[in-house]
Design goal:
The complex is a heterodimer of chains A (239) and B (474). In chain A, the strands form three sheets. In chain A, strands 2-1-5-3-4 form a five-stranded mixed beta sheet, covered by helices on one side. In chain A, strands 6-7-10 form a three-stranded antiparallel beta sheet. In chain A, strand 6 and strand 7 form a beta hairpin. In chain A, 25% of the residues lie in helices and 16% in strands. Chain A is α+β, with helices and mostly antiparallel strands. Chain B is an alpha+beta fold and 474 residues long. Among the domains of chain B are: 103 residues, no CATH class; 168 residues, Cytochrome-c3 Hydrogenase, chain B (Orthogonal Bundle). Chain B has 15 helices and 16 strands. The longest helix of chain B has 33 residues. Classes of the chains: A alpha+beta (239), B alpha+beta (474). At the A-B interface, strand 6 of A face helix 2 of B.
Chain lengths: 239, 474
């Protein structure tokens, strides 16, 4: 811990909490056992604030702010759960479901999927917007892994882990808006990638069944993410 | 004045179908058609998907017989991997397939068909269902529910869940059998055997009430097709194809089912989404054949289990060479339940059934795979082609109900000619037309319209399009 870190006092959901000034609302909430849903955020990776699921209400501000990128301030009064927040979160998840072809029943990650668990936790039983049913490719050219764009939610965890932890920067995002895709190298087949080390970190940080190991059958792809915080910690200590 | 009778939707079958009956100027039946009015598109929607996903994807074709599709699909995938799966995995899959046949046959006999058989074809349609059977024949209904439950429990014990278990995978199965699971299944089997024997006795007691139905329910010569094992025994998982004619003479034997395209052609008619498979050497539509319980018992030499063989001997007395009346699908189904119970017990008593080596792993090594097995309703064929990455390029499925399409259409015509006359309709006449379809136990899709009041609409329409007679149930 850095020496001159100041402590701020604030309240989350009516609980008075003390936090270090360099912490985000999300970190403080998790330390105190307050659950805020996330999809793009992952401990050990940089923060992008893309999925907007961790939006919270802060007294005195009419805007909602993402808990993952907002640092704590003295006297903040934060609400992490309200009917308004739940409505927005449901809408976000429904839009994700409608955007691509998420068919849980035949997915390798069925039962181990963050998107699926989140939908269950938010009580989503149907999607209120029409599905887009895009025609998307599956790239199985890599000898060990497969990317199925039908199940990708563009959280960019794969992009960040490959760049920040593995240091290969094989993954990136091409296109904009609804046409955005994760790509390997310069949109070459994954199997043809010269930068990929085949480490598999991207597969294990992927929250859905978009990235998976070959040979895994339906519901067999459970991911191991525990390695990431340890890996980051070890590297920081070594520096 | 010609007119048309339409039965839509067809009730107490699995899926959505419609029947039209053409009457001629004198009010006699001139033609009849069985239309399958739904298009599913599974062969198309799987294109581009990894072959590993196919068993689970294809299982969604049906909620009643998902296991049949799991088995045939996994076998096709085994071929794409070009592996020989562990023996124990094969036995476990075989066991699940038998449990599936047990529960599906029980569903047809007890839930869908027994109201016709025990309450009568002309009984009031408001009470001709399994719910009123619960008060008139409580033991039978209890037996039916329990027998189906035993089948489903075996599937659940093996695969983790009753419908669409993800346990059957390319290369084998995901989990071995535990001692506890084996013993739990073994404890249920004696009860299943008792129920089945009791039901067979009951059926034999009532079958004589239906002489007209036995004579006219799809009673005509056709070929029969089914798998047999290397001893000519009853086989549902592997084996080779045998085809016999109406006299029981072998038309084909020891035929590798992977070569199905050499003998099975698929014709298309504009009035149905269901194709019309036929035996190529005899042409269309003369190459009409039947599959399923009746066909399987007609092609085998023996069942290879004690009780089933005893009943099989009695079954053979119903015909000369083969049993031709489709009404006897019911009896054949009960005999197959017996066989399933006995065979599951045999498999469980084998020592290596508890082996933990139940899965082979491999990349896609072959570009093509064909999986053939016997589903409750008959021969099931899954045929896939993959690209170099193992993504599906093309799929062809021939479902048991499809094989029987020609025979079902001819059976409807036969029943309609025998029971429907004139321009006034009686409900019992139309129920017989539906009942002959139920005898085949077609699985038109995933959904069942199993019980309750039948939303049936029949219109008699004259040559000029005028409505002559209308009969509606809601």
């Amino acid at each position: 811990m850095k020496p001159q870190v100041k402590i701020k006092t604030l309240s989350i959901d009516g609980r008075d909490i003390g936090a270090r000034e360099d912490e985000t609302i999300l970190e403080v909430a998790r330390e105190n056992g307050i659950a805020i849903p996330t999809l793009c955020w992952l401990e050990g990776l940089s923060t992008v604030g893309a999925c907007r699921l961790c939006m919270v209400e802060i007294e005195g501000s009419s805007r909602l702010l993402p808990a993952c990128t907002t640092h704590v301030e003295e006297g903040m009064r934060i609400a992490t759960d309200s009917e308004r927040l739940r409505r927005y979160r449901r809408q976000i998840v429904e839009l994700i479901f409608s955007e691509r072809n998420h068919v849980c029943s035949v997915c390798v990650s069925n039962g181990h999927c963050e998107l699926q668990s989140l939908a269950q936790a938010l009580g989503i039983v149907r999607v209120h917007v029409p599905y887009r049913y895009p025609r998307l490719d599956v790239d199985a050219s890599h000898p060990r892994f497969v990317v199925d764009h039908n199940r990708c939610i563009l959280c960019t965890r794969c992009v960040r882990v490959c760049d920040e932890v593995e240091g290969a920067h094989t993954w990136d995002v091409s296109g904009r808006g609804v046409d955005a895709r994760v790509i390997t190298d310069l949109a070459q087949p994954w199997g043809a990638s010269e930068s990929c080390t085949g480490c598999g970190k991207c597969v294990h940080v992927c929250p859905t069944g978009a990235l998976f190991e070959k040979g895994k059958s339906v519901a067999e792809m459970s991911k191991r993410r525990q390695f990431l915080p340890y890996l980051t910690l070890m590297r920081e200590e070594r520096r | 004045m010609t007119s048309t009778i339409t039965i839509d939707p067809l009730t107490r079958v699995e899926g959505h179908g419609r029947i039209t009956i053409q009457l001629d100027d004198q009010g006699f039946v001139s033609d009849a058609h069985f239309h399958v009015t739904q298009l599913r598109g599974f062969e198309k929607l799987c294109e581009g998907r990894p072959f590993y996903e196919m068993p689970s994807l294809m299982a969604r074709i049906c909620g009643i017989c998902p296991v049949s599709h799991l088995i045939a699909s996994a076998k096709a995938c085994d071929e794409i991997m070009a592996v020989k799966i562990p023996d124990t995995a094969m036995k476990l899959r075989r066991m699940m397939n038998l449990a599936q046949i047990l529960q599906s046959h029980a569903l047809n006999f007890f839930h869908l068909s027994s109201p016709d058989l025990l309450l009568g074809m002309d009984a009031d349609p408001a009470t001709r269902n399994v719910f009123s059977m619960a008060s008139t024949h409580p033991q039978l209904v209890r037996d039916g529910v329990r027998l189906r439950q035993i089948g489903q429990l075996i599937i659940e014990l093996l695969g983790g869940k009753r419908i669409h278990p993800a346990w059957v995978v390319p290369g084998g199965v995901t989990e071995p059998l535990s001692v506890e699971q084996r013993d739990t299944i073994l404890r249920m089997l004696p009860e299943a055997l008792t129920i089945t024997l009791r039901t067979i006795d009951l059926f034999k007691g009532i079958v004589d009430r239906f002489p007209e139905e036995t004579r006219a329910f799809g009673n005509f010569p056709t070929l029969f097709m089914g798998l047999v094992d290397d001893r000519g025994g009853l086989e549902h998982y592997d084996g080779t194809l045998r085809i016999v004619d109406a006299a029981g003479s072998r038309v084909a034997d020891g035929f590798d089912p992977r070569r199905y395209r050499e003998i099975i052609g698929e014709a298309v008619e504009p009035w149905s989404f269901l194709k019309f498979p036929y035996y190529i050497p005899r042409g269309y539509p003369e190459g009409i054949y039947r599959v399923g319980p009746l066909a399987r018992l007609n092609v085998v030499d023996t069942a290879l289990t004690r009780w089933a063989d005893q009943e099989l001997a009695e079954f053979r007395q119903l015909g000369h060479g083969t049993v031709l009346s489709s009404f006897h699908y019911h009896y054949a189904r009960l005999i197959e339940i017996l066989f399933a119970v006995e065979r599951i017990e045999q498999l469980l008593s084998e020592k290596e059934i508890l082996s933990t080596h139940v899965r082979a792993h491999a990349a896609p090594n072959a570009a093509e795979g064909i999986g053939v097995s016997e589903a409750p309703r008959g021969l099931l064929i899954h045929h896939y082609r993959v690209d170099g990455q193992g993504l599906i390029e093309w799929a062809n499925l021939i479902i048991a109900t499809g094989h029987n399409n020609l025979a079902m259409n001819r059976a409807i015509l036969q029943v309609a000619k025998r029971f429907i006359r004139g321009d006034r309709l009686q409900e019992g006449m139309l129920n017989r037309v539906e009942a002959v379809i139920r005898a085949f136990d077609p699985c038109l899709s995933c959904s069942t319209h199993a019980v309750g009041r039948m939303p049936l609409a029949i219109d008699l329409v004259g040559a000029q399009g005028e409505l002559l007679h209308e009969l509606r149930r809601r």
